[in-house]
Amino acid sequence: MLPLVGLIARTPWGDAPRELTSPAALDALRLSLIASLSATAIALLLGVPLAWLYARVEFPGRALVRALTTLPMVLPPVVGGIALLLAFGRRGLLGGLLSDIGMTLPFTTAGAVMAETFVAMPFLVLTVEAGLRSMDRRYEDAARTLGAGRWKVFWRVTMPLIAPSLLAGAVLCWARALGEFGATITFAGNFPGVTQTMPLAVYLLLESDPQASFVLSLLLLAISVAVLVGLRHRWLGTL
Amino acid sequence: MTLEAAVRLRQGDLELDVKLEIKPGEVVALLGPNGAGKTTLLRALAGLVPIDSGYVRLDGLTLEDTSTRTYVPTEKRPIGFVFQDYLLFPHMSVLDNVAFGLRGADAKSHAASWLERVGLRDFTASRPQQLSGGQRQRAALARALGPDPRLLLLDEPMAALDASARAEVRRDLKRHLSTFEGIRLLVTHDPLEAVALADRLLVIEKGRLVQEGTPAEVAARPRSAYVADLVGMNLLRGAADHGSVRTDGGVSVAAAGAHEGEVFVVIHPRAVALHAQRPEGSPRNVWRGRTEAIEVTGERARVRVTGPVPLVAEVTPASLAELHLAEGSDVWISFKATDVSVYPA
Question: Rounded to an integer, what distance in angstroms lies between the CA atom of residue B263 and that of residue A94?
């Protein structure tokens, strides 16, 4: 609690509006929103099928693959960043292939998105997988007896029934992506307007303009609290 | 329209091995205790659980045959399924639930006319959660019948209802079932429901078909303790030897018309008399016992007595008082050889 109190006490409330609307802060804010929302979209696109695979299909090595998917949750983000560099960097495993088709990921916005996706997607996969496992699968049976093929069952029955898990997973993933620091700075660097997201800006401003850094920190804190309040029913029941 | 199926499968502790044939237009009830495999059999016919060996043929069309590796997936089978708790999709309106199985531009209007048929016209826009149990059942029935299936499977259609609503809902269900021309197969563990709704009963126990026939036939000649208990009869099994039957427990029961071989012996509880002293006269079967449990319902009292064989006697509450019977009293039990019915096992 004490660090939070400290943050709130030291925030220059009077200067807050001006600090938040400074070009540097706005740039970081805009970039953060774009990168974190893109990361969430990609995580949904890749993570939902993955969660479905883990929850519904038995295949050899499932436990291992599943563990690997969730590894970024426990991996130090900076290690994740280095791993991404080694895979997709200019001299990485796939870097040559990527540059041949004219794509560079490190130190670009796309790289920041990738780093955030890497770190945040496991939250979505685990939440959606839990939703798929806990839903009453007999609704899917009922849909099949009504002539619905796999695709129709998935879109018209499974997805709507797990909507709360889907939403919670996406919000958690987004919040994690928004706060991502270590993997982003390692893989994408710290270029204002290109890869300098809010957490990176906060870190940098701490040296040059501590007041601004406090204000941005408070904004991130407010978002975290909002997520917590929004999802409280999932964790605390009906309090 | 005929359904012919042989289903053998193993699922957990259950070993299901049932062969059945249902003729056009029949309403058949699958009756059996919990865990007998009724629901699993229904799900196997729908293609929702794989069968280890056997076949399912509907109207000459092979839906599944393990010998030729034929398997028509559930969504391509001409079936309708009413699930135990109806499983109406909670995120759709009642109309959309019924329209879910229908194709084409007129799916909604077709669904609406089905809802009208089952008396739910005013609930098309409602969510399933807003309906009563009986209304949900009718919505589920409309949803299952909408796509015009040839086989309708109903899994414990009354189980999710309050006891107070059952009689009325059962009447409705019977009426709606009678308008459907295909094969109707319903699962139940309630004999009353089976008798009320079905032309023929199939009794399954522990994954095997133990008896089939019209409700009257099954009630008159139970072939298992479960059925005997359901219809309230005393059932014994033993070897017949010209005028008497030696039960599996070694007790000799005098029975008119008992010939030879393995037989079932049925004694109606009303034919079992209880006495304070050893009875005089004609009854050939007389023995001592002890009352174990007494159950009074209205004008009748059912007395469970232990003795050489356990029996249930049905007496009037008046004679109960006259005999000073309480649980644990010693009594004499008698029944006539002519009140015993014997048939081959």
Answer: 80
B97 membership: H or E segment, kind and range: helix B94-99
CB B50 within 8 A of CB B29: no
CA B116 to chain CA centroid, Å, is 31
* Contact: A139, B147; criterion CB under 8 Å: no
H helices present in A11-162, as ranges: 16-20, 23-56, 62-74, 77-88, 95-100, 109-134, 138-145, 150-153, 159-161
Spatial separation of the C-alpha atoms in residues B49 and B217, rounded to whole Å = 32
**Range of lowest pLDDT (A25-39, A207-221, A223-237):** A223-237
DSSP state of B218: H
Q: How far is A105 from chain B (nearest CA, A)?
A: 42
Paired tokens of A139: 């609704």
Give CA–CA dist A131/A164, Å, rounded.
8
User: Does A238 have pLDDT greater than 50?
Assistant: no
Residues in B closer than 8 angstroms to A138, CB to CB, are 83, 87
pLDDT of residue B251: 85
Of B230, B71, B82, which is closest to residue B156 (Cα–Cα)? B82
A139 and B144: CB-CB below 8 Å? no
Report DSSP letters for A128-187, one per residue: HHHHHHHS-THHHHHHHHTT--HHHHIIIIIHHHTHHHHHHHHHHHHHHHHH--HHHHHH
pTM for this entry: 0.81
Q: Is B83 on the interface with A (CB under 8 A)?
A: yes
AA identity, residue A198: M
CB contact under 8 A, A139 and B89: yes
Amino acid of residue A130: A
The two tokens of residue A132 are 């798929």
Amino acid symbol at A127: T
Q: B89 to chain A: nearest residue by CA?
A: A139
Pairing of strands B14-22, B3-11: antiparallel
Distances (CA, A) of B56 to A90, A108, B14, B21, B151: 60, 60, 20, 10, 12
DSSP-derived secondary structure for B28-60: EEEE--TTSSHHHHHHHHTTSS--SEEEEEETT
What is the identity of the amino acid at A211?
Q
List average pLDDT for each run of 10 residues in chain B, which is 345 residues long.
92 93 91 91 95 93 94 95 95 96 92 94 94 93 94 91 83 89 90 86 93 87 85 85 83 80 88 86 83 85 87 87 83 88 85
Q: How many CB atoms lie within 10 A of CB B202?
A: 24
Phi first, then psi: what are they for A124, rounded to 5°?
A: -70, -45
Looking at the DSSP bridge assignments, the partners of residue B290 are: B306, B330
| Cross-chain residue pair B74–A139, CB shorter than 8 Å | no
* Cα separation values, B256 from B234, B242, B284, Å: 16, 9, 10
